[in-house]
Amino acid sequence: MPIKQPEKPLVPPTRLPLRDEGNSVVLERRTQKVKPPQMYQVVVLNDDYTPMEFVVGVIQEFFNKDLETATQIMLKIHLDGRGVCGVYSKDVAATKVDQVLEAANKAGHPLKALSEPVEL
Ligand code: TYC
Asked: Closest Cα to atom 10, ligand 1: which residue?
């Protein structure tokens, strides 16, 4: 004679909703799980050979800066050794670095760029 299996509930048990003093259903507070994505800054490095005008042009073209802003960033790089040209998602930052390096290579300049995570 076959042994009868205990009946399995078709719907899994759920917790009763939390209710306040007036018996209204209240939402439970959850700790925030979704963090904004890590952003990456594109840093351009100084060198002794790349012409200033070329760097200004690169910053204007690939980082969408006007002439004045691009000139300020270039001068900061020239004086400090490095400067942030823009902040992007990881993929976009990597593409910007590639664009800068390719333009510099084509023109025969040793200009270098890198991307790094933005510090919190
Ligand atoms: N130091 C370069 C010069 O004197 C100019 C320069 C600026 C080069 C910024 C690179 O990322 C750079 N010609």
From this structure: 46
